[in-house]
Amino acid sequence: MKGWKKALVVLLSAVLCFSLFTGCGSKKNDIELDENGNIKPSGKVSEVEFWGWGDEEELQVFNNLVASFNAEYEGIIKVKYVQKNSQGYQDAVATNLLGSRPADVVYAGDGEYKQLVKDGSLLDLTNFLEESKVLKEEEMWDSAINRYRYDPDTTTDKKPDGSPASVWGIPKDIGPTVLYYNATQFKAANVEIISVPEDELDEYNTKNGTSYKPRGYYVPGHADNDIEAKAVFNNRIAMSWDEVRYLSERIQQKGIADYGYFTEWWFGYGWSVGGDCIEYVPTEDAQYNGGYWDFTLGDETKNYIVKDGYEGEYSVGGNKYKTGEIIAWGDKLVDPAASTKTIRPEILASVASGDLIELPSQREAFTEFVRLSQKKDVVVDEVNGEKLYGYEITPNPTTISTDGKVGYFTAGKLSMLVDGRWSVVNIRSSMAKGVEWDVAPLPIYKKYDANGDCIAHGVAAGHSGSTSLAISKKSRVPQAAWKFVEYVSGAAGQGIQAKAGFAIPNQKAVAHTEDFLQSDQMPKNAVVFIEAAEVQTPGDWWYLKDKKWIDDWAGLLNGDVRNGKKSLSEFFASNEFTGTFNKLKDYTKRK
User: Taking the alpha carbons of 85, 88, 90, 93 in that order, is the dihedral positive or negative?
Assistant: First the structure.
């Protein structure tokens, strides 16, 4: 009997001991907050492990951030900064977060975090954000915070009931894409550079005795493709697709640079006219979670925008649109689920009355993008019997792969480059001494009449990159981890990052400070980054929980198609393209 009692005592002790480590004891070293959100004194130090990566400059910035945070919270919270290699970082994080003692705070990119959510690895940060006195959602860029909202069942940023999905990461920055240009080469090509917003152009003309039009590039009094006459480039107004081509041809034909322009992304072209590569189709079909994704990269239906100066709101498909807004894909179609897509009759009637302006289709925008790198004797596509040849104004992927796009730009082989804020530091250090460069808005679709006045236009669009700070669902110190996330993503941490120059702060107010604008250095026109942050969204890698639906067709596009070995007609007929339709539907099928 005594032996039995002794065994029972040992067993109960073991159970009690185990519970201390697996129950409330697992969070025993976390901070506690009072009703006002202040840390309660406890005499304990909460240790937070943070995994990060970056180039030498970013690592130094975060070493300073961590040191500053630890000094402020000395004796309360201590962050251990673990620097990881950028190569394989996300795979390492995914494995680590599934373990028993994962890192507390990690980087989760906008293209990777959804898989971590599906794995059950991330902590829902919605309540933390709502209750924070440091971070206010309304003070961040919508395009930054909303990309980290996700519902794994609907695979959208909305829950099944239509309410906003949970927030899984807090953006540590946002990196909009803009047009970098070599001002020295422009001047050598007899191009005058001005920097005048459209709403100030009349005043500028009156003051300077000029009559410049509100355009990004044109040749006053001459055809836009006249390479001998003096031209004007306005870095505060977006160029049209054609203007980019004319300016590029001027640069190339004068022998100033090998190529005039380069972009590796089609987003700005498709999104400028309201197109996209996938669209969501709501359905009551029981095999899906409320809807499925349709592959629309080659969609041939025209797009439509509410005319400038339209009074009131234009209604169609149950939604309302204001002047300058493009009608959504689902609203312009009679039945988005139909195999043959038909435009609503009321849309066509509104075009006839002038209330809506017709824009190119997604396929036409995509074709424009592919033509950039093709040789002038290559037939890129054939539409209604018309052969569409290449422009040969950008290097193809094979050509540019040796030096890389930034290397091409800083070496003077390329006059205009579409890239993100993250390249500023590199360009500053690599550009030859004495060479002037700056930034301008991304091109958008525009159509002009015989007088050179704009009669149709798309919208400002492009993609921005972003990485968030996320917290492990298994973190033993979630409150302490959140304090660090708050610090890095709040005004203090964002100000420190802004000074480094490689990203835009997620706080709008910080982005408008001299810490970010850095008007004493190139680029002088840094306000363009801020304007881009207002409208730019994440790329196609963000749309779904992983990128498996992209791999095949993107590989073909960036290989044989953009290198001129396959036409667009062959691309759209390929197994890599057609097989994507079924892949997309698997993402929302009920399991």
Answer: negative
How far is the C-alpha of 492 from the C-alpha of 507, rounded, in Å? 10
For residue 122, the 8-state DSSP code is B
Residue 182 pLDDT exceeds 80: yes
Q: 121 vs 98, 117, 165, 506, CA distance in Å?
A: 6, 6, 17, 24
DSSP letters along 134-171, please?
S--GGGB-HHHHGGGEEBTTTTBSB-TTSSBPEE--EE
**CA–CA separation, 192 vs 221, rounded Å?**
14
Copy the structure tokens of residue 135. Answer: 């971070």
Half-sphere exposure of 98 (CA within 13 A, CB side): 10
Q: Which long-range contacts (CB under 8 A, 24 or more apart) does 19-27 make?
A: 26/476, 27/476, 27/477, 27/478
Q: Give, rounded to a whole angstrom, the gap between the first and last alpha carbons of the chain.
A: 54
Encoded amino acid at 555, one letter: G
Contacts 24+ apart (CB under 8 A), 400-404: 400/262
Strands 191-194 and 231-234: parallel
Looking up tokens 């919508």 gives 142
| Peptide bond before residue 523 is cis, with ω within 30 degrees of 0 | yes
Rounded to whole angstroms, the Cα distance separating 563 from 540 reads 21
Phi, psi (deg, nearest 5) at residue 307: -60, 155
Phi/psi region, residue 209 (left: phi>0; alpha: psi -120 to 50; beta: rest), is left
CA distances, 355 to each of 74, 308, 310, 334, 589 (Å):
63, 9, 7, 19, 39
Other C-beta atoms within 10 Å of 54: how many?
18
Is the pTM value of this prediction over 0.85? yes
The type of residue at 344 is R
Residue 27: predicted pLDDT? 63
Note the pLDDT tens digit of each residue in 305-322.
999 999 999 999 999 999
Can you spell out the DSSP letters for 432-491?
Answer: PTT--EEEEPPPB-EEE-TTS-EEEE-----BEE-EEEEEBTT-S-HHHHHHHHHHHHSH
Sign of torsion over alpha carbons 312, 315, 319, 325: negative
Sequence letter at residue 202:
D
Cβ-contact 303, 456 below 8 angstroms: no
pLDDT at 16: 38
Residues 479-494: tens digit of each pLDDT: 999 999 999 999 889 9
Encoded amino acid at 224, one letter: D
Which of 502, 554, 507, 423 shows the shortest CA–CA distance to 170? 507
Which residues are CB-neighbours of 261 under 8 A, at least 6 positions away? 244, 245, 247, 248, 372, 393, 394, 414, 415, 416, 417, 418
Amino acid in the structure at residue 513: T
Q: Do strands 175-182 and 303-306 pair parallel, antiparallel, or not at all (unpaired)?
A: unpaired
Q: Give CA–CA dist 218/209, Å, rounded.
A: 18
Handedness of CA 502, 506, 512, 514 (dihedral sign): negative
Tokens 């802004």 correspond to what residue? 498
Please enumerate in sequence order all residues whose Cβ is within 8 A of that of 381, keeping only pairs 6 or more positions apart, or say none: 367, 370, 388, 567, 568, 569
Say which amino acid occupies 1. Answer: M
